[in-house]
Amino acid sequence: MFQTSTHDRNRRSPQPMVTTFGHGPLRTTVECVVALLLAVLLFRTFVAEGFMISTGSMAPTLLGFHKRVACPKCGELFAYGTAWDESANHLAASSSEFEVEQSICPNCSQQGIDLSHVPRNHGDQLLVNKQAYLWSSPQRWEIAVFRNPNLPTEAYVKRIVGLPGEAVSIRNGDLWINGEIARKPLAVQRTMWIPVYHQEHRPTHDTSFQDRWVSTDGWLEPTSNLRGWRSSPTTFLFREQTAGGATEALPAISSDSEQNTTSQPAGQTAVAAESSISWIEYQHWVRSGGTHITTVTLEEWPSDLQLATLPPSGLKYDSKTKKLSSFGVLPDDVVSFLKTNSQNLVFLQAINKLKAASHLAPITDSYGYNLAANSMEPNSVRDIAFVGELSLPQDQGRFFIQLTDGLERYTLDFDSQRESVRLFLEGTDRPLRVGPWSPPERGQSVRIEASMIDRQVALAIDGHEVFPAWPISAVPPGAESPRSPVRFGALSGTVRISNPTLFRDVFYTFQRSRHAVNRPYPLGPEEYFVLGDNSPVSHDSRQWEKPGVHRKLLVGKPFLVHLPSQPGRLKIGDQEWLLRLPDFDRVRFLR
């Protein structure tokens, strides 16, 4: 125990020479500022911290420095990644520090969109929960911020795909764990969907563009009383035949139980027996380019045209198989050359047929975000999701969605009379899945989400899964991806489908990769394998010398995109300045 001596108690100590603020407003203000700074410092150190993304390795989920582009043909808004320089203190897109680029619309494939007058945006700013992984472990498909294992002074953001102790591999664009495909739940799929085509952004004033949703029976006029589909810019309407003509006899609908029995003849499927279904098919029409091969039959090459005189075009003829083929879309100038130099009508008919068919291509893993000049050869994608708003009668009405991977076709049968949805595989007569659903009331609609992603078929109505996803077998390597991966149809009732939209999944590329490609990569007990959503340009565990991210390098889990900005202009007289303005549309929570 310490005590104060008598001498010390009796001695008068001099008063300290200090300057005080007293107890007035100034002192209170200073104390508040200091307390706020300490609170912010403690909050950033132990709770949450902000990070800004500079690159596009997670696009379009998270954006780096980019330009927001509006396609002049279809009006689609999309982000296009730009070069960035930390020393730049302005946003002038015309600055010599930035190379002027031309972009390609990911919705309608319009090329050569001029970006010279489009201002540059800063990247997304993330708020990261630094406590997220102190008491729990990261889960597969979560987005995480971590220190680069090869350069710990840098903070990266990627998606965690491989967990400690697992063997990770990439095959045909999919993730495989311990020899089995890793299937994303539908809730995770939604966070990673990449738009392929929005019907509401169809280029209505572009005569060169061919509609991608095509009625296989032809479109009817809105006032027609015949049975079939009518089309408007964003909505497709099916009606049965009305007064003015005899109603077409429809096949009987089986009254089997919801469990797997049918009354169809042997060898027929429950769906195939209903031959009167009217279909609208998605055809992935592209303007030009591509790496797909299209063939038509041609008995012989015309005698008035020498193959050696053809311009470089990817056009080939095989006299043994009698096949005329083109690589990508057959160019217009080549077609003009052929029509000018040959009078063979059979040949010219084959060229016209080949030209039309060559515009239909598989969906690819192209990104509107990426620089077209630096993009690698695209990969065809078969993992797609269909989304639309459905309305049909409660007492009668049959609606169908068919999805195909190019080998197998799966049909979702929406029956309002039964109040059920059944999943069939083409060629079988027993449903694979059966789930309940309540048709919407008159004038109302429901949101349909049907996907064939990660080798499974999933369905949700108004955000709720109708039945467990149905797993399907892996696709053999080299199998061609479909050019018409989805269609929807109606059998009876008045059916309306609005704003149909097609999405695709991330295709994990193997170019320039050395880990988890040629053979599975085994992770250590505290290591994680990470990948970027913008797979063609993402530098991640596939390329790093040390591919595994150790747990101690994890910074936290981002949960909010906050304070994003958009360029604004301030003009006073002849002077103009570009400003950073808040972009509240981009503020969102991350799952």
UniProtKB/TrEMBL annotation:
Its EC number is 3.4.21.89
Task: Enumerate the active-site residues.
Answer: S57, K158
CDD domains per UniProt: S26_SPase_I (cd06530)
- List, alphabetically, the Pfam families matched: Peptidase_S26
Q: Where is this region: Disordered?
A: 1-20
Q: Which GO terms describe its biological process?
A: signal peptide processing
Coiled coil regions, renumbered to chain: none
A cellular component term from Gene Ontology for this protein is: membrane
The UniProt catalytic activity note for this protein reads: Cleavage of hydrophobic, N-terminal signal or leader sequences from secreted and periplasmic proteins
Topology relative to the membrane = Single-pass type II membrane protein
Keywords, in A-Z order: Hydrolase, Protease
Q: Which InterPro entries match?
A: LexA/Signal_pep-like_sf, Pept_S26A_signal_pept_1, Pept_S26A_signal_pept_1_CS, Pept_S26A_signal_pept_1_Lys-AS, Peptidase_S26
Q: Where is the protein found, in the record's own terms?
A: Membrane
Q: Which residues form the Peptidase S26 domain?
A: 122-190
Domain of life of the source? Bacteria
Keyword Protease on entry: yes
State any single GO MF term. serine-type endopeptidase activity
Major localisation: membrane
Q: What class of enzyme is it?
A: hydrolase
Provide the family line. Answer: Belongs to the peptidase S26 family.
Protein name listed in UniProt = Signal peptidase I
